[in-house]
Amino acid sequence: MKKSFSDLINSDKPVLIDFTATWCGPCKMQAPILKEVKDKIVDGVSIIKIDIDQNPAVAESYRVQSVPTLMVFQKGEIKWRESGLKTAVQLEKILRPFVLAAKEQGA
């Protein structure tokens, strides 16, 4: 069963959404970085790619005007948001406090 966007972001554990597009060069560079981060953090975070061209309503509802735009959601709330290419080190530094907080809360 396919989950809705709101189901995805309402998780107790942090969810990193990568708003992306197939035609976007920096988005293509971001993909292996996200995989590296996921491999290091493992179960602590969910990483989901949303193609803005295939999901314009979601992109519009969050006012995504450039790609890549990365957002961290936890329990349905935006905890962090930034546009542009991010390194694995930057993303780990951003995600770690959310992952630790979720673990302390038993997520």
Characterise the protein shown here:
The protein is α+β, with helices and mostly antiparallel strands and 107 residues long. Helix content is 42%, strand content 23%. Strands 2-1-3-4 form a four-stranded mixed β-sheet, covered by helices on one side. The longest helix is centred in the first third of the chain and has 17 residues, at 25-41. The protein is globular.
Spans with pLDDT under 50 lasting ≥5 residues? Answer: none
Largest sheet: 4 strands, mixed
Q: Number of DSSP strands? A: 4
Number of helices: 4
Shape: globular
Overall pLDDT metric: 91
Largest sheet strand order:
2-1-3-4
Fraction in helix? 40-55%
What is the gyration radius calculated from CA atoms? 13 Å
Distance between the termini: 22 Å
Topology as H/E string? HEHEHEEH
β-sheet strand percentage: 15-25%
Structural class: alpha+beta
In short:
The chain has 107 residues and is an alpha+beta fold.
Summarize the topology.
Blueprint: H1 5-9, E1 15-20, H2 25-41, E2 46-51, H3 56-61, E3 69-74, E4 77-83, H4 88-104
Parallel strand pairs: 1-2
Antiparallel strand pairs: 1-3, 3-4
Helix pairs in contact: 2-4
Key phrases:
single chain; 107 residues; alpha+beta; 4-stranded mixed beta sheet; 4 strands; 42% helix
